[in-house]
Amino acid sequence: MNDDRRILRRRLRSARRALTPAQQRKASQELLRQLIHHQLFIRSRHIAFYLANDGEIDPAPLLAAARRLGKHCYLPIVTGWPADRMHFQRISRDQRWTKNRFGIVEPVANRQRQAPVWRLDLVLLPLVGFDSTGNRLGMGGGFYDRTLAYRRRRKQWTRPVLLGLAHHCQKVERLPTASWDIPLDGIVTDQEKIWFQRCLSSTASDGSRSK
Ligand SMILES: Nc1nc2c(c(=O)[nH]1)N(C=O)[C@@H](CNc1ccc(C(=O)N[C@@H](CCC(=O)O)C(=O)O)cc1)CN2
Ligand SMILES: Nc1ncnc2c1ncn2[C@@H]1O[C@H](COP(=O)(O)OP(=O)(O)OP(=O)(O)O)[C@@H](O)[C@H]1O
Asked: Whose CA is nearest to atom 16 of ligand 2?
């Protein structure tokens, strides 16, 4: 099964990297359009984003909008301790940046600006692959899985809402699941929004599945 995941990961990563800059810009604008007026975004004050890398769908316009609206915006950092853990750090106006060991830009670590993940309202996760039931394939480091592992202890959590972001071309028929996988609450692509109705009844105002 690990081989399946590895092969699939390689294929889906090259598919998203093959998108042209124009396709990337369009996808990013579509993402903005789908979320900017959504109750989930409007009501969330503490939101974790990511800086797009490796062809990921780019939430930068949404991040810029969130900052203009005075929301508290966080990014994942992997240069803290322990090394296999990810921390969410609130970005500041005069933020200093560094590159992590994967070559991804992240804020220079500052413990005082980090928040435990359960304090966040919304976490936007970059997906390598997904299926229509909410299974997710990430970069393979297990960072999101480990950071969110506490959620396995209870079926329903009100926050943070976990929203996976991906290009439509990253959708597959069925993903192999692993015991440590943490289910998503929803997925947004440049073409659709899918909700899984685990905890979103109060926030996802537009039904279980919508275009
Ligand atoms: N934009 C973004 N930021 C993010 C993540 C992400 O997926 N996207 N992460 C989400 O987890 C964390 C970084 N996780 C990563 C895990 C693996 C690889 C990666 O490229 N692995 C290489 C081998 C790396 C090496 O050891 O040199 C590979 O699989 O080929 C990159 C990032 C934190 N920040
Ligand atoms: N809760 C956990 N505790 C310890 N190790 C874990 C946990 N969750 C995942 N892992 C480890 O992380 C590794 C990567 O897992 P997987 O292939 O599912 O990554 P992924 O979901 O694609 O990545 P990510 O979570 O970073 O997006 C696996 O080898 C797994 O053993």
From this structure: 140
Q: Is residue 136 a known part of a binding site?
A: yes
Q: Which residues pair with 164 in a beta bridge?
A: 125, 187
Whether pLDDT at 146 is above 90? yes
How crowded is residue 76: how many other Cβ atoms within 10 Å of its Cβ? 23
Q: pLDDT tens-digit profile of 66-118? A: 999 999 999 999 997 888 899 999 999 999 999 999 999 999 999 999 999 99
Asked whether the beta carbons of 198 and 183 are under 8 A apart, the reply is: yes
What's the whole-model pTM score? Answer: 0.93
Binding-site residues, ligand 1, Cβ < 6 A? 50-53, 56, 76, 78, 86, 102, 104, 126, 138-141, 143-144
Choose which residue among 6, 8, 53, 104 to substitute to test ligand 1 binding: the one with the highest number of ligand atoms within 8 A of its C-beta: 104
Closest CA to 204 of 74, 43, 73, 29: 43
> ipTM of this predicted complex?
0.93
Write out the DSSP string of 73-92: EEEEE-SSSSTT--EEEE--
Residues in Cβ contact with 161 at an 8 Å cutoff, skipping those fewer than 6 apart: 40, 44, 121, 122, 123, 185, 186, 199, 200, 203
Q: From the centroid of its chain, how far is CA 188? A: 10
CA of 98 to the centre of ligand 1 (A): 15
Question: Atom 3 in ligand 1: which residue has the minimum CA distance?
Answer: 50
Domains of the chain: 2-204 (3.40.50.10420)
